Amino acid sequence: MSPLDLSIEVIGWTGAALILLAYLLLSAGRLPARSIAYQGANLLGAIAFAINSGWHGAVPSSALNVVWAGIALFALVRMARA
Protein backbone atom coordinates (compact mmCIF):
# COMPACT_ATOMS: atom_id res chain seq x y z
CA MET A 1 0.00 0.00 0.00
CA SER A 2 1.42 3.34 -1.03
CA PRO A 3 1.63 6.29 1.39
CA LEU A 4 -1.13 8.03 -0.58
CA ASP A 5 -3.41 4.97 -0.37
CA LEU A 6 -2.75 4.76 3.36
CA SER A 7 -3.56 8.45 3.78
CA ILE A 8 -6.85 8.04 1.92
CA GLU A 9 -7.78 5.12 4.19
CA VAL A 10 -6.93 7.11 7.32
CA ILE A 11 -9.03 10.01 6.00
CA GLY A 12 -11.97 7.64 5.40
CA TRP A 13 -11.80 6.01 8.81
CA THR A 14 -11.43 9.40 10.49
CA GLY A 15 -14.55 10.58 8.65
CA ALA A 16 -16.45 7.50 9.77
CA ALA A 17 -15.38 8.05 13.37
CA LEU A 18 -16.44 11.71 13.30
CA ILE A 19 -19.89 10.99 11.90
CA LEU A 20 -20.48 8.06 14.28
CA LEU A 21 -19.25 10.03 17.30
CA ALA A 22 -21.49 12.97 16.41
CA TYR A 23 -24.49 10.67 16.06
CA LEU A 24 -23.69 8.87 19.32
CA LEU A 25 -23.43 12.17 21.21
CA LEU A 26 -26.64 13.45 19.62
CA SER A 27 -28.52 10.25 20.47
CA ALA A 28 -27.17 10.27 24.03
CA GLY A 29 -28.38 13.85 24.49
CA ARG A 30 -24.84 15.17 24.91
CA LEU A 31 -24.95 17.40 21.81
CA PRO A 32 -27.89 19.30 20.35
CA ALA A 33 -28.44 19.05 16.60
CA ARG A 34 -28.11 22.81 16.33
CA SER A 35 -24.59 22.90 17.78
CA ILE A 36 -21.41 23.86 16.00
CA ALA A 37 -19.74 20.70 17.33
CA TYR A 38 -22.41 18.38 15.89
CA GLN A 39 -22.67 20.08 12.52
CA GLY A 40 -18.89 20.57 12.31
CA ALA A 41 -18.24 16.88 12.95
CA ASN A 42 -20.79 16.00 10.26
CA LEU A 43 -19.21 18.45 7.82
CA LEU A 44 -15.66 17.22 8.34
CA GLY A 45 -16.71 13.57 8.45
CA ALA A 46 -18.71 13.86 5.23
CA ILE A 47 -15.84 15.61 3.44
CA ALA A 48 -13.47 12.86 4.56
CA PHE A 49 -15.92 10.15 3.45
CA ALA A 50 -16.40 11.87 0.09
CA ILE A 51 -12.64 11.93 -0.47
CA ASN A 52 -12.30 8.26 0.41
CA SER A 53 -15.34 7.19 -1.61
CA GLY A 54 -14.28 9.22 -4.63
CA TRP A 55 -10.79 7.76 -4.51
CA HIS A 56 -12.26 4.26 -4.57
CA GLY A 57 -14.72 5.10 -7.34
CA ALA A 58 -17.80 4.68 -5.15
CA VAL A 59 -19.77 7.44 -6.85
CA PRO A 60 -23.10 6.98 -4.99
CA SER A 61 -21.37 7.07 -1.61
CA SER A 62 -19.28 10.06 -2.64
CA ALA A 63 -22.35 11.94 -3.90
CA LEU A 64 -24.26 11.16 -0.70
CA ASN A 65 -21.43 12.58 1.38
CA VAL A 66 -21.12 15.72 -0.72
CA VAL A 67 -24.84 16.34 -0.07
CA TRP A 68 -24.36 15.47 3.63
CA ALA A 69 -21.55 18.02 3.85
CA GLY A 70 -23.74 20.59 2.09
CA ILE A 71 -26.51 20.09 4.65
CA ALA A 72 -24.06 20.51 7.53
CA LEU A 73 -22.59 23.63 5.91
CA PHE A 74 -26.08 25.05 5.41
CA ALA A 75 -26.85 24.46 9.10
CA LEU A 76 -23.58 26.09 10.19
CA VAL A 77 -24.23 29.16 8.02
CA ARG A 78 -27.75 29.50 9.45
CA MET A 79 -26.41 29.24 12.99
CA ALA A 80 -23.76 31.88 12.26
CA ARG A 81 -26.41 34.27 10.93
CA ALA A 82 -28.68 33.78 13.95
Automatic annotation (TrEMBL):
UniProt keyword Transmembrane, yes or no: yes
All residue ranges annotated as the CBU-0592-like domain in the record: 9-81
Transmembrane segments: 6-26, 38-56, 62-80
InterPro entries given in the database record: CBU_0592-like
Superkingdom per UniProt: Bacteria
Pfam families tied to this protein: CBU_0592
Key words of the record: Membrane, Transmembrane, Transmembrane helix
Name of protein: CBU-0592-like domain-containing protein
Annotated source species: Sphingomonas horti
